[in-house]
């Protein structure tokens, strides 16, 4: 077993070799090209989706999506009748090296999210020489809480089937320990640097039958918890990602209270408290954002996940993934605040209350739609393939 200084030196050398190749104009390898072998863990496919419920006239309010999507692309996605399912593929790298927030294997570099100053790893932190391992952390899961919860946690479950899971050191999210405990998914050993004789990297975009099974297993893990409030108005609070604000949030909370909604601020609660207050909710209403994503797990089957979006940041993903958890997704586009920033919006409380009634009635007309959708997703899959 190499001592820490020697191991760090070898990791630094692997990084320098990669950067040297790139400085000479040599192309980088992609994951498929760098892998010694690869195999499909779960196939993809296509399914008919549950339509996103949209407030009347609100498609015309959309100006932009997220991730570079245009208004036209957002509207097209909202109206899409079918969803593509993406395969989960495992790639096996030889002699892989982790250095801080990047994995190197020959001409390939796999970036993870860096939240520490560059070269901070030199000051200390865990290092290891590994035989076989599976990478269990990701760029998006390290940067955004919602992607950590919905994508990285289930990916860690899959990675642990393939080889001992490992990750890179990063600051944890405030609610991370509580949700890990609730779902029974322990944190993988994390390192500032490692050398792995064989490293498996899972590539999994969007959803497939196996990922949905992992999501449903997470829902099942918290199913024995007692139910909390039936209707939740979730405030965004002050500690979540990119700043956006519902300026008349208090007014909306007052209007919705007679409708049975309980206003809650998740930033002022622990994960355990959130589950205690929200488990089994039939409807969640909130400004869109990562703070709403735990609802995919704690809401009851057939629940309605209603999100309010700035006209310049309409996330089809937030609504479109709800059916993969057995829920209905609904979208309400707010209005600009006069003289305010583009992500400071308001929502008409009466219009929102009417839309909420419409969403409830729509779900009641076909309460079995989420179950049929999940059955269709399951039908596209096959038993997970741990190795080829």
UniProtKB/TrEMBL annotation:
One of its GO terms (molecular function) is glycosyltransferase activity. InterPro entries: Glyco_transf_61_cat. Residues 145-301 form the Glycosyltransferase 61 catalytic domain. It comes from the Bacteria. This is Glycosyltransferase 61 catalytic domain-containing protein. It comes from Tautonia plasticadhaerens.
């Amino acid at each position: 077993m190499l001592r820490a200084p020697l191991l760090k030196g070898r990791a630094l050398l692997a990084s320098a070799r990669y950067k040297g190749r790139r400085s000479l104009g040599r192309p980088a390898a992609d994951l498929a090209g760098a892998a010694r072998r690869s195999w499909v863990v779960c196939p993809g496919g296509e399914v008919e989706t549950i339509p996103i419920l949209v407030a009347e006239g609100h498609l015309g309010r959309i100006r932009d999506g997220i991730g570079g999507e245009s208004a036209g692309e957002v509207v097209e996605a909202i109206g899409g009748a079918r969803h593509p399912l993406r395969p989960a593929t495992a790639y096996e790298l030889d002699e892989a090296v982790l250095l801080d927030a990047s994995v190197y294997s020959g001409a390939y570099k796999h970036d993870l999210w860096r939240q520490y100053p560059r070269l901070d790893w030199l000051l200390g932190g865990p290092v290891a020489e590994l035989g076989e391992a599976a990478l269990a952390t990701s760029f998006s899961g390290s940067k955004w809480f919602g992607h950590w919860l919905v994508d990285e946690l289930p990916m860690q479950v899959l990675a642990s089937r393939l080889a001992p899971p490992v990750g890179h050191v990063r600051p944890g999210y405030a609610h991370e320990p509580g949700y890990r405990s609730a779902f029974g998914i322990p944190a993988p050993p994390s390192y500032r640097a490692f050398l792995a004789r064989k490293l498996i990297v899972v590539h999994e975009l969007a959803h497939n039958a196996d990922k949905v099974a992992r999501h449903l297993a997470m829902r099942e893990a918290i199913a024995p918890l007692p139910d909390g409030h039936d209707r939740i108005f979730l405030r965004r609070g002050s500690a979540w990602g990119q700043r956006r604000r519902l300026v008349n949030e208090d007014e909306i909370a007052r209007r919705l209270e007679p409708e049975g909604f309980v206003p809650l601020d998740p930033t002022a609660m622990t994960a355990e408290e959130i589950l205690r207050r929200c488990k089994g909710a039939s409807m969640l209403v909130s400004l869109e954002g990562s703070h709403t994503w735990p609802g995919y797990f704690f809401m009851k089957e057939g629940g309605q996940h209603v999100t309010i979006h700035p006209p310049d940041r309409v996330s089809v993903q937030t609504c479109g993934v709800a059916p993969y958890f057995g829920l209905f997704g609904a979208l309400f586009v707010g209005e600009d605040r006069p003289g305010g920033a583009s992500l400071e919006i308001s929502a008409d409380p009466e219009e929102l209350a009417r839309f909420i009634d419409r969403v409830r009635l729509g779900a009641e007309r076909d309460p079995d739609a989420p179950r049929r959708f999940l059955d269709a997703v399951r039908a596209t899959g096959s038993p997970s393939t741990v190795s080829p």
